[in-house]
Amino acid sequence: MIRAVVTDLDGTIVLAGDVVTPATVAAAGRLRELGIPLVAATARSPAGVGRLGGFGRGFALAVGNGGSRGWDPATGRTLWEEFIEPDELQDLAGFVGSMPGAGMSAFVVDGRVMTPEHVVLRGGLPSEPWREMGLGDLWRKPAYAVDIRHPTLSSDELVAGLTAAGLSRRVTISYSADHLVDIGPLGVDKGTGVRRALDLLGLSPAEAVAFGDMPNDLPMFAACGRSVAMGNAHTTVRAAATRVTGSAAEDGFARALTGVGGLLG
User: Fold this and answer.
1) pTM score, two decimals?
2) For residue 225, what is the DSSP state?
3) Beta strand segments in the chain, E
4) What is the pLDDT of residues 36-89, one digit of tens each?
5) Is there a contact between 3 and 36 (Cβ–Cβ < 8 Å)?
6) H or E element at residue 252
7) 173: how many CB neighbours lie within 10 A of its CB?
8) What share of the chain is helix, strand, coil (3-state, %, to 5)?
């Protein structure tokens, strides 16, 4: 019997437009009935999880910004926070500045800051508080996490460029969408965040099952005893999972937990 469920949000249990299907809501309710904590592990900030309303407040704990922040969604109480320091941010900004058309975004204590290029590449404004800021100023505050976007380079190409620049030895680099990289403090990822969250709940990661769809979920998979990849997950995620379910649109999360042969029995 599993004792905790850990899940990514976007593309795993949350569809575009912050939509959570009735089957997913019902599966989360079943977990509550059984006394099994549901932990969110996401690139979102507290404001991003808050957009999910009552569903978001129902998580036992939330691991956000790729592991650098932890909080109690029911009360908003911060449990931990870690930062990329200004020296690393300055060099990340220099890397972005060397690539015409690239954009950079940072999650800082008082919201989110984005370069004009990042706003354009994002294809829309975020729903959480944000402000525009140039590269010359963006690095001046410690940040929980950074996103770098490029109009043509793939995520793998961006990772290769950051590695060649020596930045992979100073920050944690992964990605959750193409033409984008997610960057956090060195040694911090979803795996470290999930271990901290489960420790606070008095549970062993070996007793947990993790759900995810993108490479930034791999450390979380490695941390937990079992892992479930969504049907449309990245190939590396499917290969690493102990089980594959349907896509988020196919209610794969609910099917894996409560369907025939589901993990909840």
Assistant:
1) 0.95
2) S
3) 4-7, 38-41, 61-64, 69-71, 78-81, 103-108, 111-114, 130-132, 145-149, 171-174, 180-185, 208-212, 226-229, 243-244
4) 999 999 999 999 999 999 999 999 999 999 999 999 999 999 999 999 988 999
5) yes
6) helix 252-258
7) 22
8) 40, 25, 40
